[in-house]
């Protein structure tokens, strides 16, 4: 019993240490919100008092919500561990199949188990998601969803998760049972192929189930984007506008695709006159000057959009995407290797109240990946956050070399203001949580001479 005792309380202790650390960081940032009353000197003239106060209020509300949400999740997680949740759900899953010929099928029982886990997770997240959307985001002017849209969105998302996850789970269990001693190699190959396949089909076939994608019509902006892509030899195939304004007023831009079939996607909330563009009306912007951000309305001008895209294309040109992909797959291989080593150790199962002689693959995956790997995942997450911040600086530098420094500065400020981002953060909180440098850090780096 001693090894099981050590594993159980070790996992529980680390979970609470990590949770209290997160709470400490959140409270540090809360103090920054409460005590920062002046606009940073660097943003004087480009951040008005009204927007600053709105950003402060938004930050405090999100901070308060984050504290309550983290306590809720921690209490549920602790209760699940202490009440042997895996055993209870596994037995319930077997009970659901007791009158069928699949009662002794590990694959079918695992699929029912996963469906139960996903259902419970969805039900517990609904009130949190609803409060965030209809109270906090609504209060600060970002929510664009009505209740009907919200419910349909959640149902579609839930069904999609089941359609994808259940066959993958069945295949993974089959590989573990079939693969012998070195099953983790075959499982890793399957995971790599599956992830690349999903990355390929998601933007084309899955994302349009949730949002409307419209080709950017011919005009000044499209011509400028195509010229920028040609300048950096980016194999641009199409440019889309996604109608994210039906969901939220937050804005973004990204690209996707492999080889010579790359697409650029702009959120309609990123664009001025987005309604006219979505309706295929030609917009001619003759005064797109990146060093001016005096317009009160939301959205970027052409030069600022080009600067933001120059940053995103910098990630591609500097091979950041490939770098992330390699790191993630190497990390996955390491985790699957350790899983293959620990998978059949009865002590791990007994530590979480699972005393059956057979060791279901899905239970082993849940215990090892969710709990045993928890300290490792925390270290890796922090390391990746630190790396991401450095790569963001590099991408900014790439856009600067394209001659887009001024519009990039004004674009970042506008994006920050439109999303009510607070300009000041606690250094420790930011280092732990932010994959992107703070706005002031980025502006300082961009303004430095080469």
From TrEMBL:
Keyword Secreted belongs to the record: no
Domain CAAX prenyl protease 1 N-terminal: 29-212
GO annotation (BP), single: CAAX-box protein processing
Keywords linked to the UniProt accession: Endoplasmic reticulum, Hydrolase, Membrane, Metal-binding, Metalloprotease, Protease, Transmembrane, Transmembrane helix, Zinc
Location(s), subcellular: Endoplasmic reticulum membrane
Bilayer topology annotation: Multi-pass membrane protein
Gene Ontology MF annotations: metal ion binding; metalloendopeptidase activity
Reactions it catalyzes: Hydrolyzes the peptide bond -P2-(S-farnesyl or geranylgeranyl)C-P1'-P2'-P3'-COOH where P1' and P2' are amino acids with aliphatic side chains and P3' is any C-terminal residue
Positions of Zn(2+) binding: 311, 315, 392
UniProt name for this protein: CAAX prenyl protease
Native species: Macrosiphum euphorbiae
Taxonomic path: Eukaryota, Metazoa, Ecdysozoa, Arthropoda, Hexapoda
């Amino acid at each position: 019993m001693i090894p099981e005792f050590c594993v159980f309380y070790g996992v529980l202790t680390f979970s609470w240490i990590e949770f209290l650390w997160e709470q400490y960081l959140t409270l540090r940032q809360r103090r920054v919100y409460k005590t920062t009353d002046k606009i940073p000197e660097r943003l004087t003239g480009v951040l008005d008092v009204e927007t600053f106060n709105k950003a402060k209020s938004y930050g405090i509300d999100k901070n308060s919500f984050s504290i309550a949400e983290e306590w809720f999740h921690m209490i549920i997680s602790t209760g699940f561990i202490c009440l042997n949740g895996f055993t209870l759900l596994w037995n319930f899953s077997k009970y659901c199949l007791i009158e069928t010929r699949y009662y002794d099928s590990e694959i079918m029982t695992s699929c029912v188990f996963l469906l139960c886990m996903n259902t419970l997770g969805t039900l517990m997240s609904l009130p949190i998601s609803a409060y965030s959307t209809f109270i906090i985001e609504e209060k600060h002017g970002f929510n664009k969803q009505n209740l009907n849209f919200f419910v349909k969105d959640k149902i579609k998302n839930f069904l999609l998760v089941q359609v994808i996850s259940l066959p993958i789970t069945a295949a993974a269990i089959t590989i573990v049972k079939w693969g012998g001693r070195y099953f983790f190699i075959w499982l890793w190959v399957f995971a790599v192929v599956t992830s690349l396949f999903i990355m390929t089909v998601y933007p084309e076939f899955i994302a349009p189930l949730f949002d409307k994608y419209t080709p950017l019509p011919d005009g000044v902006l499209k011509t400028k984007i195509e010229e920028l892509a040609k300048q950096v030899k980016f194999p641009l195939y199409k440019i889309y506008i996604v109608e994210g304004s039906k969901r939220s007023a937050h804005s973004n831009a990204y690209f996707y695709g492999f080889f010579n079939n790359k697409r650029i996607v702009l959120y309609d909330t990123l664009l001025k006159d987005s309604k006219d563009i979505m309706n295929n009306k030609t917009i001619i912007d003759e005064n797109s000057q990146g060093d001016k951000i005096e317009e009160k309305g939301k959205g970027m001008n052409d030069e600022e959009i080009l600067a933001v895209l120059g940053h995103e294309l910098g990630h591609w040109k500097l091979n950041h995407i490939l770098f992330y992909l390699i790191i993630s797959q190497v990390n996955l291989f390491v985790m699957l290797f350790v899983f293959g080593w620990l998978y059949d150790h009865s002590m791990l199962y007994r530590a979480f109240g699972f005393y059956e002689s057979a060791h279901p693959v899905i239970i082993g995956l849940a215990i090892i990946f969710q709990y045993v790997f928890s300290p490792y995942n925390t270290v890796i997450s922090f390391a990746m956050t630190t790396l991401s911040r450095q790569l963001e600086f590099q991408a900014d530098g790439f856009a600067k070399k394209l001659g887009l420094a001024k519009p990039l500065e004004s674009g970042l400020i506008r994006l920050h203001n439109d999303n009510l981002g607070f300009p000041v953060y606690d250094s420790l909180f930011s280092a732990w949580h932010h994959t992107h440098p703070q706005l002031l850090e980025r502006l300082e780096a961009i303004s430095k001479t080469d």
